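User: I've been trying to design a sequence by hand for this structure and keep getting stuck. Would you show me what you'd pick, starting by listing the structure so we're on the same page?

Assistant: Good idea, let's start from the same input. This is the structure you sent:
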């Protein structure tokens, strides 16, 4: 059975390890080895989400199964180490879309509802704060999940190059039901 809770500072080492493993294993069917390596440089842990109390952990039988969050800040994607992607400006729930951020499933728990559960938890929390829309930056591996959950493509894009290698990404959005 899956349970969801807010992430804490004590979770950070385990979250970072889960993210590294998820990127390395779950992206390889969609990206070249060089793109997977570049993904490690542009994705990952954003401790601001934990500090803002908008980041969730999914657990199954006491094991970390996945994680993900949402944000009332303008940053669309990236981790602590990708400072050039960060925009800490607060969003206006009446005019802006909340950001779904840093969604990862442990490779041992794929296809078990972890991503859907975390996403639904994030959407409910954003809706409770008055947001009417969400946006996210999907990896190619994550795009099918988001489509299945009602997200639509806004644009196909790519990350800034890392050692000459860019990562393909898909900006997606969804209206939240009242």
């Amino acid at each position: 059975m899956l349970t969801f809770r807010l992430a804490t500072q004590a979770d950070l080492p385990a979250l970072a390890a889960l993210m590294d493993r998820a990127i390395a294993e779950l992206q390889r069917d969609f990206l070249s080895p060089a793109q997977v390596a570049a993904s490690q440089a542009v994705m990952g842990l954003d401790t601001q989400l934990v500090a803002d109390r908008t980041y969730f952990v999914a657990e199954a039988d006491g094991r970390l199964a996945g994680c993900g969050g949402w944000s009332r800040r303008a940053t669309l994607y990236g981790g602590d180490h990708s400072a050039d992607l960060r925009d800490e400006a607060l969003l206006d729930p009446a005019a802006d879309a909340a950001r779904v951020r840093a969604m990862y499933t442990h490779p041992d728990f794929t296809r078990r509802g972890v991503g859907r559960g975390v996403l639904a938890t994030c959407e409910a929390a954003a809706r409770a704060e008055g947001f009417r829309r969400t946006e996210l930056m999907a990896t190619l591996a994550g795009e099918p999940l988001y489509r299945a959950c009602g997200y639509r493509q806004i644009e196909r894009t790519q990350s800034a190059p890392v050692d000459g290698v860019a990562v393909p990404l898909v900006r997606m959005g969804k209206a939240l039901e009242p």
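That's my pick for every position. To get oriented when you compare it with your attempt: The chain has five helices and seven strands. The two ends are 28 Å apart (CA to CA).
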